[in-house]
Design a protein that fits this description.
It contains six helices and three strands; from the N terminus they run H-H-E-H-E-E-H-H-H. The chain is mainly α.
Length: about 140
Amino acid sequence: PPAFFDYIEYLLTTRFAGIKNQVSLLADLDDGRLKTLYRRCDALIHFGPGPAEFLDEAVYFDKPLFIAGGVETPTSPSRAGYRFYGADRQSQAVRLHGLLNDSWALAGLLDRQRRDLAAQKAEPGNLSIWDLLELAAARIATP
């Protein structure tokens, strides 16, 4: 949303000027550009209450998914990405950096994401967008 980009731009100018040249804000990306970004990034970060719409992409591109925000509840998914609760962004950034630089912990997170997505797919009627596209392509190719 434009207001979110304006706020991030404000923060980069006023509080985080030292990293402003290292941050790119992108919107309305075509599929090719988005796919390139997914391949080149180190992690996917989602700011919101739930990761369901990003878990497919994280697993497909073998990237860790970090969820920053939301409120922890008894029904919060526990394995779909690494969750950060609370507003202490500095400690979240330190933990995120630590996980990205710990190959054992990172491998464990990626494995949990794959297992969680497989469990979600096993539920009736719960296919990922990638699965739906592969099914559609197979049906088109079959006379």
